[in-house]
Amino acid sequence: MEQLLQQIEKYKQEIAEVKAETIEAVESFRIQYLGTKGLLKTVMGEMKNVPNEHKRAFGQVLNDFKVFVENKFNDLQQSNVGSEASAEKSIDWSLPGSFAPVGTRHPLTIVRNQIVSIFKTLGFAIAEGPEIEDDWHNFGAMNLPEDHPARDMQDTFYINQNPAWLLRTHTSSVQSRVLESQKPPIRVICPGRVYRNETISARAHCFFHQIEGLYIDENVSFADLKQTLYFFVQEMFGKDVKVRFRPSYFPFTEPSAEMDISCLICGGDGCNVCKHTGWVEILGSGMVHPKVLENFGIDSTKYTGFAFGMGVERICQLKYRVNDLRLYSQNDVRFLKQFTGAV
Ligand code: PHE
Fold first, then answer.
1. Gap from CA of 43 to ligand 1 centroid (Å)
2. What is the pTM of this model?
3. Are the CB atoms for 194 and 174 separated by under 8 Å?
4. Which of 45, 54, 124, 294 is the most exposed, having the fewest neighbouring CB atoms within 10 Å of its CB?
5. What pLDDT does residue 77 have?
């Protein structure tokens, strides 16, 4: 008993001298003396060895000791709060903050959104299809039977030969998807990525983006096609841009036409982008071939329609003067951050 009291006195002296100048040091004091396996708990444990007649007096000693240790802990904590507060005083609150930069949309996304919203105002809905397609949806249904020479127009990436699985070469494959699942009247645009086995250069890439349009109803004529595309060009590029249609060939449209707009880079004077012609092709189009409609059980004597497919990269090039297709997929922030603020 006497020994124990002496021991507690020793502890008190030892504790009185403890210094803690950091939050970590205060915490280790707490663990060492007040923690669940700390000194205070150990000393308290001695109670059971004390004879009954001394328990009351020893209880008082223990309680004093507990208060002593807790006071010391509070003092240490207090002096540390003080040191933090003085550190805070040295902060200059008038310094400008550091800004977290906001990300930007990819230019192709910006242009795709613009195109989609223009056609939305004309009542077109959005349709999508898979990037991995079968031969039928990409070619067969679009009136390109096997051994059709027009298949060579697009160098296809095949994933599997028999049955043929491939990366879609155009968004016209989504026409097939829509025609097999919807009945006329149909009015859709289909934005998406397409793939062709081309050597990558400033002018060609092995993947790019298209937006397909499909409009099927009774009495749809080539005049509707032209008017729709005129409207689109004026909304997209402004009223001063000139438009021309050139006869062309696609197996899934008849008649077919490609549409050019006057070159926005040189204003029609001639430059690299328009190959010194003053005109730039932006899309292929035509009246949906009756064979395509019949492939999906749509009566081609009752319904007619038009379709078009435009290249998003090309339109983006004209809009933002991007002169190298590769820039779109290199993830160079010096390129990408130039589009900050655009929606
Ligand atoms: N699918 C054609 C292409 O990729 C474009 C097109 C679509 C032409 C619809 C006519 C009608 O070149």
1. 88
2. 0.72
3. no
4. 45
5. 85
